[in-house]
Write a structure and sequence with these properties.
Carbamate kinase; single chain; alpha/beta; two-stranded antiparallel ribbon; 11 strands; nine-stranded mixed β-sheet; 9 helices; about 40% helix
Length: about 240
């Protein structure tokens, strides 16, 4: 038995680069594909939103002289490239998937709609949701929150390289303490970083729980789906 029947999985684009820091790690793509296939084989319906930080970030582009709107669209296109990479990795492990985009990109992918996602779920497909929200000035965290509501996911799983929410950045502060369970209000009060404020507020206002966990350790996604307490649950 699995704890959830329908999830929205938010993946970091930077994680796809592995130790390279840029582009793609074949090993990381294969690991993600195998983890996601194992969960899909359990009958879990999976929507995936992927970032684009391994290729381009709009905000970093503005610091280099890019117009913010153009920079954000470049970031959205980076998420579509990552979606294609994931789709290829899924095919390699025998996992059926559908790639949808937030704006028209045919023949790369079909335009997102809730009905297309539901139809894909009925066909036992994983759905890769790319292009963020389709609008500049919004992050892929906001895109993940929005898609989680639209597809009626039970939870938003935020797969990162850190195994939960801490009192401080555990990669910089060895004394940082991990929370196993924390409310949205407490995160606000403690000024902790879970996701960008817009996405975080959307989840709070729409009562969408967020589970932060380490996706880069093989097998962790299945542990989360099975109900193992390996990350941090953020909720109202």
């Amino acid at each position: 038995m699995t704890k959830y029947k329908r999830i929205l999985l938010k993946l970091s684009g930077e994680s796809l680069a592995g130790d390279e820091g840029f582009g793609y790690s074949p090993e990381r793509l294969e690991d993600y594909a195998e983890q996601i296939k194992a969960v899909a084989d359990k009958g879990v319906e999976i929507g995936i939103v992927i970032g684009g930080g391994n290729i381009f970030r709009g905000l970093k582009g503005t610091k280099s002289g890019f117009d913010r709107v153009k920079g954000d669209y470049m970031g959205m296109l980076a998420t579509i490239m990552n979606g294609l990479a994931l789709h290829s990795a899924f095919e390699a492990v025998g996992l059926n998937a559908e790639l949808l985009t937030a704006f028209d990109t045919e023949p790369v992918g079909l335009r997102f709609s809730k009905q297309r996602v539901i139809d894909a779920f009925k066909q036992k497909k994983v759905v890769i949701l790319t292009g963020g929200t389709g609008n500049p000035f919004f992050t892929t965290d906001s895109g993940a929150a929005l898609r989680a509501f639209e597809i009626e996911a039970e939870i938003l799983l935020k797969g990162t390289r850190v195994d939960g929410v801490y009192t401080a950045d555990p990669e910089k502060d060895p004394n940082a303490v991990k929370f196993n369970d924390i409310t949205f209000k407490e995160v606000y009060e403690k000024e902790l970083k879970v996701m960008d404020l817009t996405a975080f507020t959307m989840c709070k206002d729409n009562n969408m729980p967020v589970y932060v966990f380490d996706m880069d350790t093989p097998g962790n996604l299945m542990k989360v789906i099975s109900g193992d307490d390996i990350g941090t649950l953020v909720h109202n």
